Amino acid sequence: MPSLLTNPLRVGLRQERVITPQCIVIFGASGDLTHRKLVPALFELYRQRRLPSEFAVLGCARRPWSDEEFRQKMAEALADEIREHPSAWDSFSQGLFYEPVDLQQSDHLVRLAGRLEAIDRLRATRGNRTFYLSVSPEFYGSGCRALAGAGLLADPERSRVVIEKPFGRDYGSAQALNKVVQACAKESQVFRIDHYLGKETVQNILVMRFANTIFEPIWNRNYIANVQITAAETVGVEERAGYYETSGALRDMVQNHLTQILALTAMEPPGRFDAEAIRNEKAKVLQAARLAREDEPWKCCVRGQYSRGGSAASPLPGYRDEPGVNPNSTTETYVAMKLFINNWRWQGVPFYLRTGKRLPKRLSEVVLTFREAPVHLFDAAGGAPTPNQLILRIQPDEGAEIRFEVKAPGSGMRSRPVDMAFSYDDSFGEPSDEGYVRLLADAMLGDPTLYTRSDEVEAAWRLYTPLLELIEEAPWQLPVHPYEARTWGPAAADNLMAEDGLVWRRP
Ligand code: BG6
Question: What distance in angstroms lies between residue 253's CA and the mean position of ligand 1's atoms?
């Protein structure tokens, strides 16, 4: 009989599970996320017949829109999909509703509760509700309080709340927010979203590691020399200066997305394939992670900010020239850092994390570099043999590759590195779902496996506390180094690697 780990689809991560009749209530429904990600994901679920016909989506925001106006706005945003699936949209959009709600006004909550009951009757949604807080982060706590105060979170089996990132701004605020949220709902009702966990390739880290026997025996300090985790973006700050100026790359990408990838890469095998077992291991490994130089954090972290770049034909603005950005801003758009994980598996193995906006390529990947062969018997084409690498390609070109040495053709015995590659596209053909499709389905199913638990979020913030404090209290010690837009970040980040005799992978 296959073990649970060799067949995860049968246990924790099943696609065929059935979503019960349900009303999804989106707060912040006039915002970008609703029309860019949430409603498209729900429409996709509907088209895949994974959303039951007894569903409703209730958009809530302060704007006084009608149901019809909300449907119209969503239709405009989804114009391309609707052109391809007009009849599916006609029936899906019958389940879209709108209610003007300000979560701070108790009389609005009373009205909302009444509207939800009316929707239950109209759409047979049976009081099952997923509340999605896509509001400004300072309202996460008060939003939960408002919902609990109106009795809308009272039934732990039938009500859930999804909370967008960022969950807190630092360790203290994350702890405080957890306290508020947990006073309003049971942990099993709380779904803290990190959309990277919705990506097929991020989930694949677990399957690669725990469904194969060839990787696990060498997945440790005896064989792995170092690990690089990169999330590179070509886009700049876009229209989000208001948010990004108060966040920066450390809070926007590192504390959540990169740290989740780190946790999945480094965690111990869970005893079972279920939400609690997996999240226990993730929390444990994050609790064991430390900045490489906690006492002198400026020595293990580099911050950067993109300056003007691009070509004469298509020049790119610097971060400080972007609309809404302070012309003297010291917000980082790039971070590189070195961490260690103080446990038996990873002691002494450096983990290098980097992320940046306006880099030359959009690319997220994990690169595990193995130790060198103890004896070099053969001449290598480039001088020294290239260490073996396992590259998990998260996006784009989703897949994995292994780099190893082979005999170069010819009469001598020279070695040369080659790649053995797996591509999701070639092997499976069809594109994977958008992360939000998977995550919304899981929230409605009540499966929190791919959501972060309170202790994980806190451990992730605690890890970066020395850096956040330094940026707050002595920012000159961690200056933002300018890097030209469309380059691979500041030279200081290369130096971070060079000090260890390494280079960043340049795919
Ligand atoms: C978001 C960040 O969480 O992730 C953005 O706020 C970033 O700044 C985005 O661009 C990247 O996501 P993806 O899925 O495009 O890699």
Answer: 7
